[in-house]
Amino acid sequence: MIYFLIFIFVEVMVSSWFAGYLGGFVTFLELIVSAVVGIYLLQGVQYSISSKLNDLRQGQIEAKDILKYSMGSGFGAVLLMAPGFFTDIVGILLQFNFILVIIGRVFANKAINTRTFRYNEKNYNKKEKNDEKIIDVEVIDDSRGIGTD
Questions:
Q1: Residue 86 is assigned to a structural domain of this protein
Q2: Does 143 map to a domain?
Q3: Phi, psi (deg, nearest 5) at residue 62
Q4: Would the pLDDT of 125 be above 70?
Q5: From 77's CA, which of 25, 43, 97, 123 has a CA 20 to 30 Å away?
Q6: d(Cα 90, Cα 81) in Å, to the nearest integer?
Q7: What is the domain extent for residue 48?
Q8: Residue 139 belongs to a domain
Q9: How many domains is the chain partitioned into structurally?
Q10: What is the rounded CA–CA span in Å between residue 26 and residue 127?
Q11: Residue 149 lies in a domain
Q12: Could you tell me where the DSSP H helices lie in 58-138?
């Protein structure tokens, strides 16, 4: 949730700065043009996936590359369709493969770091201070209702 709020804040700040610098009409044109370009790029993703599947059959690429590059381009196209300058900048950057490689390495390192986490015996089996005050209760549903004896 905090990342979403940060994203919205950055989007509003960047968009208001660009709108103040460029003016209202140019900002409106940029929103329309970026949406049209996003739709065009999203339609091109299916052809990209098709050509990558052919490359996979020929053994030129690995299966994970199809997902990585096609998903990145598709997500970038969707971001271009969304209104705002920050999303447009990120959407354009996601169209370049070297950016996707950098992002893939960052997330791969995070995945490796999360897999090496170990539970500490002291923290995992920690007893609560007031365990003796816990009462186990069973609730029985009385479906007869009130006054149906």
A1: yes
A2: no
A3: -95, 165
A4: no
A5: 25
A6: 12
A7: 2-117
A8: no
A9: 1
A10: 63
A11: no
A12: 63-81, 85-93, 97-115, 121-124
